[in-house]
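Form 7-S
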Amino acid sequence: MTAGHFIFIPSVLLVGIVLGWILGSRAARDAYAAELRRREQKAERASLSDQPRAAAPGPQASRP
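Output:
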């Protein structure tokens, strides 16, 4: 093994760690944002379903 390997291998390892850190943090941030959007949409749907709905127009069924 030449002396260049003692510099080349750790530098490639360091570059890989830095790239992994950057890409991993982006993925985590995107996943967190998606989870927040899902929670907001779920809360919005829940608030809409809590509101009373207007009766549909048409003939009313009579009870005997």
